[in-house]
Every structure is written in C-alpha cells, then in structure tokens.
Amino acid sequence: DDLFDGMNEIKLCACGTSYHSALSASYMFERYSKIRCSVEIASEFRYREPIMAKDTLLSVFYTQINKRSYS
Q1: Rounded to an integer, what distance in angstroms lies between the CA atom of residue 65 and that of residue 12?
Q2: Which of 4, 5, 45, 67 has the highest CB neighbour count under 10 A?
Q3: Ramachandran quadrant class, 29 (left: phi over 0; alpha: psi -120 to 50; beta: rest)
C-alpha cells in the first residue's frame, strides 16, 4: 500500500519558518511520491479561492512568534 495512492496533488500551506521547511519538504514529497507539490504562504492562502480537487492532500503548518524583552 502506498501512502499517496489516489492523490493527484500535495499542497502545503505554511507561515514563517514553517514555510521554509515546507519548501524543503515539497522536494522530498515530489521525489518520493512522484506527485506535484506546491507551497503556499498561509496569510495569502486564506484570501484565495484555490481550485482543489478531491484528490488533493492539503497540509497546514504554522508558527507562532514569541518576542521577549531582555534587559
């Protein structure tokens, strides 16, 4: 059984440093699965109306920025 059976596209949606990780992951997904993979910036994706078929795998990654003040 192949993990990607029935999938035609993989779409990764990420923000911040996760976006850069998703870019790297997209190369690995395409190489392993031989399925087209795209990466979207999450803040832009939410305003789009993407055309996604039922056989599209959508993965969402996000980051949280913690800013601390050091004296």
Answers
A1: 20
A2: 45
A3: alpha
Percentage with pLDDT > 90 across the chain: 14
Specify the pLDDT at position 1. Answer: 45
Q: Which residue has tokens 């990420």?
A: 14
Joined tokens for residue 68:
């601390």
> H-helix or E-strand containing 42?
helix 42-45
Give the DSSP letter of residue 66.
-
